[in-house]
Amino acid sequence: MREILGRRRMTRSSLRNAALTCATRWHWPVLPGASIRLNGGHGPTAPSLAPGSPTPGSPETTPTDLTTDLTAGCSCGDPECVVPGAHPLDPVLLAATTDARMVDWWWTRRPDASLLLATGAATRAGRAPCALSLPAAAGRAALAEFDRLGVRVGPVIAMPTRYALLVRPYELAELGELLYAQDRVPSSLRFHGDGGYAALPPTPAATGGVHWVRPPEAEPAAAVAEPVARPGTEPSAAPGRKPVGSAPWLPRMETLVETLIEASTETPDTGSRLAY
Q1: Angle in degrees, CA 160, 170, 246, rounded to 5
Q2: Which of 48, 94, 123, 210 is 20 to 30 A away from residue 233, measured at CA?
Q3: CA–CA gap between residue 198 and residue 88 (Å, rounded)
Q4: What whole-number distance in Å separates Cα of residue 17 and Cα of residue 227?
Q5: 51 upstream amide cis, omega within 30 of 0
Q6: Can you give the pLDDT at residue 155?
Q7: Whole-prediction pTM value?
Q8: What mean pLDDT do residues 23-48 have?
């Protein structure tokens, strides 16, 4: 029992630390979502950390690092919840923030809460990443094709039944033009833009943890090089300049869409009831 409680504290700490990393280092607006409860609401699960796993709080947490009871339910209380432990609850999605004090208070108060990214939301540093999600089998096929073509992808998240690829923020009109040019866009391929959300690692889930397939990587050095400072000024004083390495590199949505559509088309659609 003592060992289980120790592991639970480590997992809770990893959620808080990951939330602070997203909010303060990467400038991604986050918020706590629903959490997992044993047997539909009789206390939090007891996730376990595998031997040799990354340090708690590392964004590179893997599926073996975080597991949950298969009988777990969602803290929202809905026995038919389609995304147990991985959706907004209280506060609402619009409350997402990059404020370190707010993030720290949230996860200190609710250490088991899932970690959610408000996709496409505006922040002082710009806009949050958007996401493209598809069935896990299609996601694996798409990544293999990107590797074969030499196309660089950004952060990729694996959920129990789906993959999500984070991309640079895009406008709805831009997305519409791209999709209009396609013969068919399968319903299993979903787009998470402004007003949407994505669960981030190390969020627990009722059928397995959320983890990075491709962890976030820094911007290329040339893209974040220090600007030449004017005499009498410091480089950091340049107006509107982001700190070096402030956020992970993200691909443009249009470089990935066609391959994702092809991979999704070749994978059977499991229907509109989205598990994750």
Answers
A1: 80
A2: 123
A3: 10
A4: 31
A5: no
A6: 98
A7: 0.76
A8: 73
What digits encode the pLDDT tens for the residues 203-234? 987 666 899 999 999 876 545 444 444 444 43
Tokens (6 digits) for 85: 């432990």
For residue 30, give the nearest of 259, 267, 200 by alpha carbon.
200
Candidates 261, 259, 116, 253; CA nearest to 172 is 253
Give Cα separations from 184 to 131, 140, 260, 264, 267 (angstroms). 20, 20, 12, 10, 14
CA dist list (Å): 105 to 113, 117, 201: 12, 17, 19
CA separation (Å) from 15 to 22, 60, 61, 122, 205?
A: 11, 12, 10, 23, 13
Q: Would you say the C-alpha torsion 102, 104, 110, 112 has a positive or negative sign? A: positive
The answer to whether residues 189 and 230 touch, using CB atoms and an 8 Å cutoff, is: no
Q: Where are the alpha helices (DSSP H) in the chain?
A: 2-20, 100-109, 136-149, 172-180, 257-265
Residue 49 pLDDT? 32
CA 160 → CA 67, 83, 122, 136, 149, distances in Å? 11, 10, 28, 8, 27
Residue 79's identity, in one-letter code, is P
Are 198 and 270 a contacting pair, CB within 8 Å?
A: no
Question: Residues near 60 by Cβ (< 8 Å), separated by ≥ 6?
Answer: 54, 201, 212, 215
pLDDT, averaged across the chain? 78
Residue 268 corresponds to which tokens in the numbers above? 């059977």
